[in-house]
Amino acid sequence: IAKLSLAAPPPLDQDAILNYIHKDKKGEDGVLNFVVLEGLGNATTSTKVQDQLIIESLASLL
Q1: Separation of alpha carbons 16 and 40, rounded Å
Q2: How many whole angstroms separate alpha carbon 50 and alpha carbon 31?
Q3: Any idea where the domains of the chain sit in the sequence?
């Protein structure tokens, strides 16, 4: 982005992202379900993910 003289995007807010994730239609009884690839062409939605793991994952990306 800097090489193209473009403005950097605003920083992402972990709490706002987590809030949007909780509103996702794949949530069930307040617990988040994620679509996870177990292999090529093999997806599952049975994985339950805790908020702390999401926060740690976001921190590594942001």
Answers
A1: 31
A2: 8
A3: 11-61
